[in-house]
Design brief:
Number of helices: 4
Strand content: under 5%
Shape: elongated
Helix content: over 70%
Number of strands: 0
Length: about 120
């Protein structure tokens, strides 16, 4: 497995400029990383493994919440187009989902920085 420091770290700080689809792809990559790590966990022991997995799960959760909010926003916008009588309630949901996405995007660089500072346990 490859280290995620250096250029990899810089790439994620540009996530604020990625599309919703691209952010979802990052989430799927994190999920793949986590599952790969889980498959080799019996070979490693110690708190470093748990810490690294915790950071990985935390990021995956953050990206998952972003994707959930983006999906909700898109679905509700579509529903409003099909059913204009839902506009008032739908706009409230869209507004909440949009706010959630913005909150997550503010948290993302700090969370990624924490993750990237943690030297992967397989590199030690």
């Amino acid at each position: 497995m490859e280290s995620h420091t250096g250029p990899h770290n810089q790439r994620v700080f540009r996530t604020l400029h990625l599309s919703d689809r691209q952010l979802h792809d990052v989430r799927k990559s994190l999920k793949g990383l986590r599952y790969s790590i889980e498959s080799i966990l019996p070979l490693y022991k110690g708190s470093r493994v748990e810490t690294y997995m915790g950071h990985c799960k935390d990021l995956q959760d953050l990206f998952g919440r972003f994707n959930d909010a983006a999906t909700a926003e898109a679905l509700v916008r579509q529903a409003i187009k099909e059913r204009p009588d839902l506009t008032e309630a739908g706009d409230a949901i869209v507004h909440m989902a949009h706010r959630e996405r913005k909150k997550i995007l503010k948290k993302l660089p700090k969370r990624w920085k924490t993750f990237s500072k943690d030297v992967p346990f397989w590199c030690q």
